[in-house]
Amino acid sequence: MGDELDLLAPGDEAAAGSVAEQPWWQRSAVYQVYPRSFADSDGDGVGDLEGVRQHLDHIASLGAEAVWLSPVFPSPMADFGYDVSDYCDIDPVFGTLEVFDAVVRDAHDRGLRVVLDWVANHTSEEHPWFVESRSSRDNPRRDWYVWADPGPDGGPPNDWTSAFRAVGPAWTLDEHTGQYYLHSFAPQQPDLNWDNPEVERALHDTVRFWLDRGVDGLRLDAIIKVAKDPLLRDTGAAGLPHHEDWETIHDRLARLRQVVDEYPDRMLVGELWARDLPRFVTFLSGTGMHLAHNFELVELPWDSAAYRDFIDRFEAEAASVPGLWPSWFLENHDLPRVASRFGAAELGSRRARGILFLIHLLRGTPFVYQGQELGLPDAVVPPERVVDVDGRDPERAPIPWERPSVAGAGAGFTTGAPWLPLVEDAERLCVAAQEDDPASTLHLTRRIAALRRRSVALSGGSQVTVDAGSEVLAWVREGAGERYLAMVSFAATQRRPSFGPDLPEEGDVVLRTSPEWTAREGAGPSVRLSELLVLEPGEGVLLQLPATG
Ligand code: NOJ
Q: Can you give the residue ranges of the Glycosyl hydrolase family 13 catalytic domain (predicted)?
């Protein structure tokens, strides 16, 4: 484990008071593990739960509060686990329930919570429920899925399309029974019929199964799709959607929340592609989810004004929802890596460091996707190795743990043949190489997280954005007598920020994200804001300001 977390002396958190008093899901990062690509313990080329267990110290070293595991349930893997054929077991490729229990136990021993992915909108076509449902029109489980007669022309019943562009219509004809079934994603992922209360009850039972086993929270996959227009009307070009986010959604979430609230201290985080921000925040009321991923952020261009506008609008909306707590993320297993998305090579790498700074130091919970702490770019996946229907292989490349020159081509991820190619520069980007380099993105992530964990202002304080000149995003965090000014440069070349008269004249440099800046946090040089050092491209800088009052 890196020495950065040692900066947090035992008892510091308790002494700080309210960092420890915040709910666990607000305190620090949730680290997303995509198990297929994290660590392979048995040499079959696919990551597994024993691999996760063996690397829990790595996750703890990042100052994370929780691990979110992408699906590990039995699955034919048409969508790599997001097509579940049994909600209450572990797929043999990942391990067994016993190994899962060991992961939970060992995670808890390290103070890490465990969050599971709950895929409730659809099952696999091989789930026994669907096998029964499609067997005949009068099967008792027919109504557990969404079946409809062909449209007047014999084609699909309406205009709904799959979220996977390559799939096209969200309907597939079942020749045997002469009806279409709905699939919001791949044809191997039939949508459950949430208008049937038996379906809802059965799914609630799957939640209890995992919460009884000690799981601390659920990430709700595609949750907005569990409520659709029961009349299956066209979504059309304009107006409110009919294929998701139907008016029944809030009641369904409230009933789910009740189930989760039967257990102490559990958390729900939703994957929520809401139509706009005012709609988004309605899901974060006391009867909804604790956290939600807002995809408006990930769709923003690399533009400081767009980020500032988003942050300001979010905080303005938040004011209307008591206790609303934001989440910040730019990477997951469905999105191109920041280091590739916002520039390549060195520029991309600098911006990836700036984004790690941003998601940890804005007001809210940071979500770090495995490999983001290494600043990994997307991998190059040649056409013959493409396996995903929706083009997401590059961001799912396995984690390079060791130098290939030492551990072989599997880079410590596997001793076998990896299911996807690794990133090209594994020799330099792997965990072992970054452990040896104090200026690495890995060490930077630990330093940023440690700062957050020991500061009430940074983990739970107030936030306001401030003017900093063009192409620089800046915000002030304040709480428990501390005050910080954070900034990230969005410029492609060096940039000197400029601040308005409302800020103090001087601040102490606590941290800079550029690799050149090797000083450690605390007791940094004092700088006059008017003469602030030039920011490198993508650079994040944290200054401690004199406290007000
Ligand atoms: C969202 C998941 O993140 C994605 O990987 C999956 O393909 C879809 N939901 C369908 O479950």
A: 32-396
